[in-house]
Amino acid sequence: MKQSRRNFLKFAGLSAAGLCLAPTAAALASGGGGAGKAHAVVNAKTLHAKRWAMVVDTRKLNTEEAIETLAEVCHHIHNVPTIPGKQEVKWLWEGTYAETFPEQENNFPSEDLEKRRFPLLCNHCENPSCVRVCPTKATFKRADGIVAMDYHRCIGCRYCMAACPYGSRSFNFMDPRPFMDMDKINKKFPTRMRGVVEKCNFCVERLAIGEMPACVEKSSGAITFGDLQDPDSSVRKVLRENFTIRRKPAVGTEPGVYYII
Amino acid sequence: MIEKALKGGPKYWSWIFFLLLIIGAGFTVYINQLQEGLTITGLSRDVSWGFYIAQFTYLVGLAASGVMIVLPYYFHHYKKFKGMVIMGEFMAIAAVVMCLGFIIVDIGQPQRMLNIIFHPTPNSILFWDMIVLNGYLLLNVVIGWTCLESERQRVKPPKWVKSLAYTSIVWAFSIHTVTAFLYSGLPGRHYWLTAILAARFLASAFCAGPAILLLVVFITRKVTGYDPGKSAIGTLAKIITYAMLVNVFFFLLEIFTAFYSNIPGHMHSIAYLFVGSHGHHELVPWMWTATALAFISLAMLVPPKFRDNQKMLPWALVMLVIATWIDKGLALLIGGLTPNPFNEITTYWPTGKELMISMMVYALGALVLTILYKIATDIKRDLGELTESD
Question: Which residues from chain B sit within 8 angstroms of residue A81, using beta carbons?
Answer without folding.
Answer: none
